[in-house]
Write a structure and sequence with these properties.
42% helix, 14 strands, globular, 10% strand, alpha+beta, eight-stranded mixed beta sheet
Length: 614
Amino acid sequence: MLLGVNGLRVDNIDREREAKHRRPIGGEHMLEIMLKKRSRMFLLAGVAVALLAFFAGPASADMEAAKKWVEQEFQPSTLTKDQQMKEMEFFINAAKPFVKMSQDDPIRVVSETIPTHEYEAKVLTRAFEEITGIKVSFDLIQEGDVIEKLQSQWASGKNLYDGWINDSDLIGTHWRYGYVVPLSDFMKGEGKDVTLPTLDVDDFMGKSFTTAPDGKLYQLPDQQFANLYWFRYDWFNRPDFKKKFKELYGYELGVPVNWSAYEDIAEFFTEHIREIDGKAVFGHNDYGKKAPDLGWRFHDAWLSMAGAGDKGIPNGIPCDEWGISVDKESRPVGASVSRGGCANGPAAKYALRKYMEWLRKYAPPGTLGMDFYTYLPFLAKGNVAQQIFWYTAFTATMVEPGPTVNADGTPKWRMAPSPHGPYWEEGMKLGYQDCGSWTFMYSTPLDRRKAAWLFAQFCVAKSTSLKKAHVGLTPIRDSDIRHASFTERAPKLGGLVEFYRSPARVAWTPSGTNVPDYPKLAQLWWQNVGEAVSGEVTVDSAMDNLAKEMDKVMMRLERAKVHKVAGPKLNKERDESYWLNQPGAPKAKVNEKPQGETVDYDGLIKAWREGRVK
């Protein structure tokens, strides 16, 4: 059984204890925002992974082992079995120089603990060893611990791991500090002999997320999931509810296109419907406890959903969803409006104000004092009509039998595009998408880096990726999501397949390259937002303080000259009116309550299936 870094059996990890015993990083509680984030979140998804006992046997590099795995585990696949065997043959031959090294000292890789990575750690490591002879030790730890160890390897130069899976949110950090190997260069140079000819980088849906302004690919996507709108499809289609909503609001009950409609629907179910089948119902769901997970509730694109940044895919340029602006050379120039940033502009303050208002007026009782993990069960209980901020990672648990699933296994709910605020414009990102990606360090010896790169490709190759996508529901390849097996499964996944097949998916992206040091800046969010939610300061003060503190961090980075490229070069402060009168972000105040607008869900799905955004 695979052991984690603390010597714990992977399948016996006490997740509750891990969540309560985080280690602060460097005395400044580095990345507490990320310490809890997705590791425990994904565990709630409840995807079971079998250990495949029938594969037990001595490790040997041969085609017979490959044939066994291809026929008995790596199905379905977008490749024929003959094509799969060709890929296996490549891995066997490319691995030969590294087999003895790995038997003496296994190749070490690490990721956060989520079901997709559990599958890799428990199943794919064994398959890789039996097929190629390379032994891999795959550690599953908390996400914050992954970042801590990354920083330790950077600082010490000591090789702790040969391969890393970490969020592409760190692309700006990786690109600037110069510790990470650009994969574009590696695949053409030192790693050419160990790069799978059929890797097909263009097939990865998240390729743009891991590409820096220099045009180079720095990370290879391994899993991804989006943050979408969730709603009770059955309730929204009730004729009596539709009739009453139109009488009250003057337009159709449907998927909200803007925040005005979301607010009207929240009010409608909370104050006008109030009860369904004898149970109180609510028009909104969220959480408000002052805790680290409140931070990523906001910097995971809440400001861009309101419309705070500039146009640009995958991220706004010059101002992104963190409110950080950059110059033409991608150097951060400030987060405060007084420096040309938008973290404390009218749109950002509107975003926080609406979050607080909806939480207090339309969410279930007690959610104001809950954190991310304690508020989750409300959806499964079946008494929430909609949720504006919902991770597709929960698809697996939400299709399990219960109050929100029909007797035939189809969901009573659906996922749809996130509604946008009044500052949003066409061409802006509309939501967040996580993209855990393979990352490699210069401090890793070349032979070990090559062996780890082989394993990374094995985890994402077309031979294995479709089966992995069905296990974790975190698809990375366009070819996989379009496979017939997902067409067959789509009716029971609530819109997940249709979303990832649609052209709309490009508007949901991770944090981008404007963020010069994700760990240092991320920790500022929950502290400042939490002060507003708890009533310690006003909304205006909270966002002003956040922007100023981000500027201070970037000033220190600028003075220290720690970045190899595109380090911060902050603008001098000017009167805010100067920047608010310039085109783009920061944007001057607009009408924050336009007419509500909705769209028919079935019509939207039809458009997606036909390759249209709307």
